[in-house]
Amino acid sequence: MLMFNAENLAKLDQKYFNVIVSDDRDVTIQSKNTGHFWYLHCTEYPTESACVIFHKHRYSHSYHQHVRSRTLRQALKSIKRHDTFQVKVRKRA
């Protein structure tokens, strides 16, 4: 079983994210809170639940590796935590 199955993909919060593209190994989303882009890749190595999360601030920027996650759910929580941090930093600036 691959990480990004139809059941997991159906749980993507479309009020929070713009879903750009998704399949059984790759998901590209944009946060509606920050406008940041996220590319989640299921490596299946060393287990099928290994996910690498890439991030960029603007469409024209290049992706950089952000973190790794064991599940799609954990990856989405990590992204939301990052958004919370970004929003707090912006308010201070």
Tell me which oligomeric state these chains represent: single chain
The assigned structural class equals alpha+beta
Estimate the mean pLDDT confidence. Answer: 87
**Number of strand elements:** 5
What is the rounded Rg? Answer: 13 Å
- Which residues form runs of ≥5 with pLDDT under 50? none
Work out the helix count. 2
- Major beta sheet, strand line-up: 1-2-3-4-5
Give the biggest beta sheet.
5 strands, antiparallel
Residues in β-strands, percent = 25-35%
Distance, first to last CA: 45 Å
Basic shape: globular
**Which sequence of SSEs, written as H and E, runs from N to C?**
HEEEEEH
Helix content: 25-40%
Fold and architecture overview:
The protein is α+β, with helices and mostly antiparallel strands. The chain is built from two helices and five strands. It has helices spanning 6-10, 72-92; strands at residues 17-22, 26-31, 37-42, 51-56, 64-69. The protein has a five-stranded antiparallel β-sheet, with helices on one face. Strand 1 (17-22) and strand 2 (26-31) form a beta hairpin. The longest helix is centred in the last third of the chain and has 21 residues, at 72-92. The N and C termini lie far apart (45 Å). The model has no long low-confidence stretch (mean pLDDT 87).
Helix-strand blueprint:
Layout: H1 6-10, E1 17-22, E2 26-31, E3 37-42, E4 51-56, E5 64-69, H2 72-92
Antiparallel strand pairs: 1-2, 2-3, 3-4, 4-5
